[in-house]
Amino acid sequence: MGRVIxxxxxxxxxxxxxxxxxxxxxxxxxxxxxxxLSIRRGMKIADIGAGTGFITVQLAHRxxxxxxVVASDLQPEMLDVLVNRSDMPGNVxxxxxxxxxxxxxxxxxxxxxxxxxxxxxxxPDLLLQGLRRALKPRGRLxxxxxxxxxxxxxxxPYHKMSARQATVELQANRFRLVQRYEQLPWQHLLIFVKQ
Length: 195
Fold this sequence. Notes:
7 helices
């Protein structure tokens, strides 16, 4: 749909360290992101491309012990790092996905979150089909992507997406944009629902 698919971030020591870097709290301000998502206790959330669990841990604390967070990743090495974190809450379930199948259960999730991941999906159409199926009827799909529109953001251009491009792709896959949040330092937060 008019863009180059970015390569998937590998699971080596350098990449894992980058995903869990302390500076990320200042650079991306994930607490602001999580506040904007209006997460409630008891929710069921899927964290797609969970990586080392940087966001997963925060989601799990917000949904509480009656909630559930499914941490999905393509790379078993990332999931190994995630499940072996000393601070990983007990309400997190890891799922090893494939590039073409999230392996998420149908009609389950109140929120599906993709943080800096969607732009790497080899077949965005198949990914979105699986996410549609996994969302509850009133569930929300949240994309967080580095802003391509801002050249000052120090991220490889292949790992950025414009809000327009993301919206066009999701609309073509029967999602409707309901909220665009631009108060994060480096990223868009785009929230969609099923059409």
